[in-house]
Amino acid sequence: MDWQAIRLSLWLASLTTAALLVIGLPLAYWLAFSRRRWKFLVEAVVAMPLVLPPTVLGFYLLMAMGPRSPLGRAWEGLFGSTLPFSFEGLLLASVLYSLPFMIQPLAAAFASVDRGLIEASWCLGESRLRTFLRVIAPLSWAGILTGVVLAFAHTLGEFGVVLMVGGGLPGRTRTVSIAIYDQVQAMDYAPAARTAALLLIVSFLVLTFTYALRRHQRKPWTLI
Amino acid sequence: MDAHLNADGPHLLASAERHYRGGPAVEARFEIPQPGFSVTVLFGPSGSGKTTALRLLAGLERADRGTIRFGGVTWSDAAAGLHRPPQARDLGFLPQAYALFPHLSVAANLGYGLTSLGARERRTRVDELLARLDLRDLEHRYPGELSGGQQQRVALGRALARKPALLLLDEPLSALDRPSQVRLRKELRDLLRTLDIPTVLVTHDRAEALQLGDRLVVMDQGRVCQCGDIQQVFDRPTDPAVARILGVETVVRGQIESIVGGMATLTVGSARIFAADPGGLGWEVFICIRGEDVAVERGSAPSSESTARNRLPARITALNPEGSLVRISLDCGFPLESLVTRQACADLGLSEGDGVCAILKAAAIHLIPHD
Predict the structure, then answer these.
(1) Angle A141-157/A87-111 helices, nearest 10 degrees?
(2) Closest partner residue to A222 among B86, B103, B161, by Cβ?
């Protein structure tokens, strides 16, 4: 088994999920509660990775990261390295590719919190941020858990974008799904089968655990 | 009018509007003259904008026009683009469905708004509230495990916890069953009286308005139709719309003289009447009489045997036809309205100034305590 690829995939999925939580909580809050007229545009953009072929997304990301794009130039100026075919580039691509898997469960959970509870909190002197931490987030724990698990699992299993943006360099951008692909290409079926089985079992266990938790733990977690 | 009033204006002065696309504007236009205990009732049919008016006061709705000032501080001034959020208004708000935090225990709900206090002080305050609202045994329960009446007390306690300067109650009793409502009205009024802060209360229930209120703001289709002392509004509705909203009843204030064997004797104006005792009466009451329940007889002499307990000598002050009925306004020591058929009115040949006898069954007189 290609342990290097497995470690890389787990690390990538963890960082992607963490980054998505940081971006996702405020963005989902905005999507759930904003009354802006152009909100639907943002919703559409966030949902794009769901319908776009990964190769298309990967192609545009590659273009955007290239040395001739503003982003590529800025990155090179700051860090002295290029984004394409690097782990950082892969992380950026993964965050965008898994965005809807985090945002949509979060926004749905936030929006389903009774508005009266939020207003009651405001009238008790609590700011919007503290109301989020004390009322909205605890009551949305199931949605947050779903978002985290889906974003993690989706990143673990991504292939097309990773191939386009990462290129499959061992130890840097060769994730587990690419490792399996390479092994099959090389007619090396035995390790491919072991790696595939491992992914299958991990995915199954994570989802089982998530659904069991959602089912049995009805009481929300309190943050502060 | 005292000097304080002229110097500083009313304690609360609301004159604000909220516009809805495709709907009528809703206004919050009334005042509370003085600080200290008083209950102002926003009264009207459902859809009249009472709740929106309350939400304008709370800052949960942004006014599109006008101003709201409380205790010398401007809470909202649409022209200046000023809108204090609810967090900065120092108020206690009891929403209609209570909105208790389902993931927090009773004690945590009560202490929710007290994070600025130290842990010990917060604990003391929560214990006070638990004791005062008779919730001590329920401290560790969650809202889902409480009865409607218990939830109501927790929500009220939570609204009072921060010792607000203004209390806003949106239909505080409507989620309860009828017997609990009647029981809790008295408790609520007694509790509010101990607080020494003004309360604004929304209700569509006339008995609740009469029992809990000191001042009445009558609303219809988003507009404030009339605003004033509760007895004054019931006595002299400014227009037919107000009279319709208040209902056709005669509503007068009276005092209990005695209660014997389930029968209350009351003094009303210069008259004395008998009414069935609904229980729980204090000294002051509002007496509600439906026009349909008042019969009129010629002559003032006590005549034939009847089960009606009240025979009051009266004078006709006005006769107004209303469709197939005639509304007879009577003076029998207090103003009383009677509704009779045109036919009956014609048969008796009644006209203004006639001396008659108003007949009232004791069972048809509805008493609402107002101490």
Answers:
(1) 150
(2) B103
